[in-house]
Specification:
Length: about 450
Amino acid sequence: MNNDKIPVVAIFDVGKTNKKLFLFDSNYQIVFERSARFLETKDEDGDPCENLESLRLSVFDSLHEVFRKNEFEIKAINFTSYGASVVYLDENGRPLTPLYNYLKEFPVTIQQELHNKYGGEEHFSLTTSSPTLGSLNSGFQILRLKKEHPEIYTHVNFALHLPQYLSFLVSGKFYSDMTSIGCHTALWDFEKNEYHKWVQDEGITKVLAPIVEGDEVFDGAFPGSSFRVGAGLHDSSSALIPYLFNFDEPFVLISTGTWCISFNPFNNSALTSCELKKDCLFYQSYLGKRVKASRLFAGYEHELQAKRIADFFHITTAKFRNLQLNRRIIEKLMKEPVVVDLVAFSTIELDRFHNYEEAYHSLILHLIKAQVESTKLVLDANKISRIFVDGGFSKNHIYMSLLAKEFPEVEVFGASMAQATALGAALAIHDHWNELAIPNDLIALRYFRNK
């Protein structure tokens, strides 16, 4: 064997749009990446869905490509992907159905029957930490297949979440992991820390693979292969892992994108009815620990309203990218009450503002007020010393400055790192492939003062 080869871990990061493969070296620097996009296909109802066969072929094509590269030695492989997506496999490991889209309309009657049988919607949702989200509750998807297509369901050997299906392609083994089970699936009873009674009553447990820890690895299925294979992780939980490795003191991570999700890994208090109604839920860390989280559709709202401002003032949204906080504008805007509602800005007539800069400051001010309310839902009696913000808003000077002002007792940082989700999946199996210590500079931080 060529001793000059660079030892690497291969990570497949499968998003709804982009499917990426990264190779990280022992210092967690990206030394190779490949990206692919596939056209969606349709399920039997004509609804759009992931092209599962294209995804399967892409995994093998990508692996064959990196195995041919003489400069790398693949020591381990892991996977991370979006959740709420289930692959139904027969006894030969072949998919029996399309990969149904988690936005697919869900029959209300199936939900209602389940809720009614197990204590009502609120009690059921609290117990499972799963707001009623239709197909986004992936456990409901399995029940739907059983009820609507029993002729297919009888041939289901295992129902795997997408990250575990990807892992199966390379390891040949069937496993479940808690990051996928524990994310608004309606499968898990968070009070008893086991599958909910309905899952057992319906016999669903028969098609659920054994649960493994998120840091476990298995042998590869290919003859002669020496690499280890991880079980795969849900992407939101994976993105939290670099922070769990780097910081011991209690913190909250606000992960910003289309959704802005506030994660508090140090808050294990039970979910309340009020929190549930305000879009709080539990995620599970890769080690199976509860992570209280709150969600806000703020990135989507920002995109809509930024475009509305740009169109009104005849500019492009690019004008907003490097705007700095103008304290004079904020002081003026703060003289009028700000409605704490995510969509409040959408009702404001733009002709009241003197220019696009003033309108944009008002938009961010409204978003921050809503974000603060959302983040406070996951704060508890434990002293939080830091708030980290990653994703798009971490680079927005106005957003970050106003957020720091709203949390004067806490240090607020804009955080950035290369491919946090993929990096998390690599770090989760660190001990199984990497002989070096984990670097302490993986996350670049920018401190925002409260002033």
